[in-house]
Amino acid sequence: MAAFIAACLWVIAAWLLSVILSAKQSWPAAYALIAAGVPILIWLGLSAGWGAAAVGFIVGCLVLRWPVIYAGHWIRRRLRRD
Description:
Distance between the termini: 44 Å
Number of helices: 4
Radius of gyration: 14 Å
Shape: flat
Strand content: under 5%
Structural class: mainly alpha
Number of strands: 0
Largest sheet: none
Helix content: over 70%
């Protein structure tokens, strides 16, 4: 239950940061949210099951859509080049 509450607080913090910060400040905040979100996802997976962690991962990808889009572009470029 505590892992679920931590995941919900992570989503609220991400929303607050998106409202408060400017475009230049949003990338460092995204890196910090990713660094905080990975241990929360692992904790959620260990305590509530990996299905809950998968749902949390999808929610995290929806919240942090631009880092996910840029990561997809980067992976696609790397695969085309090789």
